[in-house]
Inverse folding.
């Protein structure tokens, strides 16, 4: 039920012979009051509530564990979804508001060699309602409004395209969460065909692309997807995206000692991005016990940043939040499976 748009509710209730205004009431219960039980809809008749129970359900995430960073107050949630699977979400405090990092799949099948989320592959796609529910449950638990959302938890959002697109429209709905598109960031490792599909949607969300290398040779060593899509193809669609939307594309770049952090790498990356409306987000690689990579030294990170900026590429070093609770970039995983 959480995945249905207001228009779909209106059409469904019309088929059931119910008045149109009932659709708005049900939508309010689900997305403003954020109930988890149909019987909580107190202004809906018992007969209609029974019909709702017979025809659907409210699929929501249930909190099973909560970890709070002693460093910066970042909160990592483990949520149970259907089939006894567990996903992870992160609540982050910034001076400009609260950000939710949500998962779009249980696990991930992209296989990036520096990321924990992909260790066990993908179990299944999340529904739009399950993505929304992560936000709703975090707001209930903290008592605070979430003002921006990043689709950077476990999973590749564009590998779950239809559900993610539905989530984007529901999150933006003025009758629901009413989150501005410019406050939503979608991160992809570069599924080029789906990026073109997204381009045609004419949205105003921020596109973040996990690049992590200045060329195909290095990228193919650490990201299996690079064997299917070249950097040239990815940068071409990114340029088209920024030209059409007038939105700056963010390039995520995890710095790995001895792999992609040399001066030459910085020079090459800057040369490929020089004509694009973009921003580079440098991420000193976070520790994942199953991987052998080491993060770049502080001196190397600063030198890499300096070279990029000297070449006219706006570059920042990502603030490391929640690393003491494995909530930082590349550390989210399907930590364990519940037995139902």
């Amino acid at each position: 039920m959480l995945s249905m748009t207001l228009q779909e509710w209106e059409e469904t209730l019309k088929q059931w012979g119910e008045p149109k205004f009932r659709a708005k009431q049900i939508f309010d219960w689900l997305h403003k009051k954020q109930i988890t039980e149909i019987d909580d809809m107190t202004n809906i008749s018992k007969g209609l509530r029974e019909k709702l129970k017979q025809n659907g359900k409210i699929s929501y995430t249930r909190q099973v564990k909560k970890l709070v960073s002693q460093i910066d107050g970042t909160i990592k949630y483990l949520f149970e979804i259907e089939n006894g699977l567990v996903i992870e979400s992160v609540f982050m405090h910034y001076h400009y508001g609260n950000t939710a990092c949500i998962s779009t799949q249980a696990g991930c099948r992209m296989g990036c060699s520096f990321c924990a989320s992909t260790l066990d592959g993908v179990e299944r796609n999340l529904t739009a309602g399950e993505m929304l529910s992560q936000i709703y449950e975090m707001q209930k638990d903290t008592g605070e409004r979430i003002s921006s959302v990043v689709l950077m938890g476990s999973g590749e959002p564009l590998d779950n395209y239809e559900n993610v697109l539905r989530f984007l429209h529901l999150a933006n709905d003025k009758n629901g969460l009413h989150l501005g598109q410019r406050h939503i960031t979608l991160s992809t490792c570069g599924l080029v065909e789906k990026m073109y599909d997204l381009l045609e949607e004419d949205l105003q969300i921020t596109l973040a692309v996990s690049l992590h290398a200045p060329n195909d040779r290095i990228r193919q060593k650490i990201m299996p997807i690079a064997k299917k899509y070249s950097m040239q193809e990815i940068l071409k669609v990114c340029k088209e995206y920024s030209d059409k939307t007038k939105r700056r594309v963010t390039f995520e770049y995890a710095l790995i000692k001895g792999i992609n952090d040399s001066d030459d790498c910085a020079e090459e990356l800057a040369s490929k991005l020089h004509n694009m409306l973009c921003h580079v987000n440098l991420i000193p690689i976070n520790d994942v016990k199953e991987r052998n990579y080491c993060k770049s030294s502080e001196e190397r990170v600063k030198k890499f940043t300096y070279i990029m900026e000297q070449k006219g590429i706006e570059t920042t070093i990502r603030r490391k939040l929640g690393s003491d609770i494995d909530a930082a970039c590349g550390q989210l995983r399907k930590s364990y499976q519940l037995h139902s």
